[in-house]
UniProtKB/TrEMBL annotation:
MF annotations from Gene Ontology: ATP binding; ATP hydrolysis activity
Pfam family, one: ABC_tran
Presence of the UniProt keyword ATP-binding in the record: yes
Xref: InterPro entries: AAA+_ATPase (IPR003593), ABC_transp_ATP-bind (IPR050319), ABC_transporter-like_ATP-bd (IPR003439), P-loop_NTPase (IPR027417)
Keywords annotated in UniProt: ATP-binding, Nucleotide-binding, Transport
Any one Gene Ontology BP term: transmembrane transport
Segments forming domain ABC transporter: 5-250
Family to which the UniProt record says this protein belongs: Belongs to the ABC transporter superfamily.
SMART domains xref list: AAA (SM00382)
Organism: Pseudidiomarina maritima
PROSITE patterns assigned to the protein according to its UniProt record, in alphabetical order: ABC_TRANSPORTER_2 (PS50893)
Name of the protein: Cationic peptide transport system ATP-binding protein
């Protein structure tokens, strides 16, 4: 079976521009490899600064790896062809309100992607936008709303609508749901699970919450200081973790918070 996503030894180095040692090479991500099947959900966990967002950005094409390759459906992705990538792999951002254009109605912003990526006429675009709004639990009236007229949960639904409108293979979410209050977060997570089942989309998300990860993920990747220290099925990592960090990250919200506190003090 061809894997949906194959990540071969991607890594990311930055040149330090300011500070005491300008020009010094910063290693944000040491070479990592892993793969994902169609419809699977991968959770990326690790303390702050461990390279989680770097992985999310490299996969979504928001940044270019220093080395390594990413393959989708057995084809190598061109790291510089963002347009090709953004049709198949979409990203959901953390701050939904800021990622929406305050001056455009929801309908207009959702139509944008269709305008550039399909040759549909206006009526076809509108029809598809209305169908997508309904898929994410919004009403046809919301087509004419501006972002500030929506609640935070509804704004997050618009972001999900924007992510699924081109029917991508993979959605990448980098701590996208942390700002939501728990009941809305639960609704959004359930919405994503429903969409996955309906559309067969794979989902890669960065999370600090063991409860959400255990509930949603098929596979988990654990990061520590730019290195992947463990990767496997959720089942295997819960029942037979190979590293103390994996055990701690998956144990409880409380322990997780304590761990984050101690690592940021280092
Ligand atoms: N544009 C950049 N320039 C320099 N260093 C960066 C840049 N982006 C990330 N880093 C560094 O790479 C490391 C990993 O960052 P990141 O992937 O954002 O971590 P995480 O999401 O796990 O908190 C950090 O040490 C961070 O400071
Ligand atoms: Mg991050």
């Amino acid at each position: 079976m061809t894997k949906l996503l194959e990540v071969h030894a991607i890594c990311k180095y930055y040149q330090q521009k300011q500070g005491w040692l300008p020009g010094r090479r910063i290693c944000a991500l040491e070479p990592i490899s892993f793969s994902l099947n169609k419809g699977e959900t991968l959770a990326i966990m690790g303390e702050t600064g461990s390279g989680k967002s770097t992985i999310a950005k490299l996969i979504a094409g928001a940044d270019v790896p220093s080395n390594g390759e990413i393959w989708l459906h057995g084809k190598r992705l061109d790291p510089h062809n963002y347009r090709q990538r953004c049709r198949d792999i979409r990203m959901i951002f953390q701050d939904s309100m800021r990622s929406l254009n305050p001056q455009l109605t929801i309908g207009k912003q959702l139509s944008e992607a269709l305008k550039f990526n399909t040759n549909w006429n206006l009526a076809q675009q509108t029809e598809h936008v209305l169908q997508t709004l309904s898929k994410v639990g919004l009403l046809p009236d919301h087509y004419h709303f501006y972002p500030h007229m929506l609640s935070t949960g509804q704004q997050q639904r618009v972001c999900i609508a924007r992510a699924i409108i081109l029917e991508p293979q993979i959605i990448v979410a980098d701590e996208a749901f942390v700002a939501l209050d728990p009941s809305i977060r639960a609704q959004i997570i359930n919405l994503i699970l429903d969409l996955q089942e309906d559309m067969g989309i794979s989902f890669i998300f960065v999370s600090h919450s063991p409860e959400i990860v255990k509930h949603v993920a098929d596979k988990i990747l654990i990061m520590h200081r730019g290195k992947m220290i463990e990767f496997g099925t959720t089942e295997a990592l819960i029942h037979n973790p190979q590293h103390q960090l994996t055990r701690m990250l998956l144990q409880s919200e409380l322990l997780n918070k304590a761990l984050k506190h101690t690592t940021t003090q280092e």
